[in-house]
Amino acid sequence: MTDDDRLETAWEAIVGDFPLVDPQDSGPAALAGLYERLVGLFAGLGVEDAATRVRMPADLLRFLALAGGTRRRGDEYGLYLFGPATVASQTAQDSGLFAEHRPVESGLWLTIGSYGDKHVITLCCDADDARFGVVVDGHDDHPWNDGGGNVPWADSFTGLLTDLGA
Q: Is the pTM of the predicted complex or chain greater than 0.85?
């Protein structure tokens, strides 16, 4: 089974629980634009080598293409899996909020989802970081702030989807 097959199998197992709540362009041009926007965002926050460090894990890219936008399980306080435009805007918001606290070794993180009113789901998009692809649940926290509320959730985005289906 290929990595794409594993991602698609995990997504198919839960897609019925996650209706589309915000359709977004998720075609190749939109995903390339997301990458460019993220490189610009991190470069603007002082990450001089952002162009070589920002990488979108293949499983996240495949999900973004399949999902067609932001998906939500439950009510407005339910679990959101963000579409490309929301990943960009929420990553910009969270990164801007915590930029002054960012330790150099903290890596680069995407905001890929949320749940409740205090949980942010982030994914390491830093090709130079050993945690590349790891998903973290931040309870009133972010990896750049790390006030002790960041808990590893899965080793990959596919792992997150698999866990959500368990």
A: yes
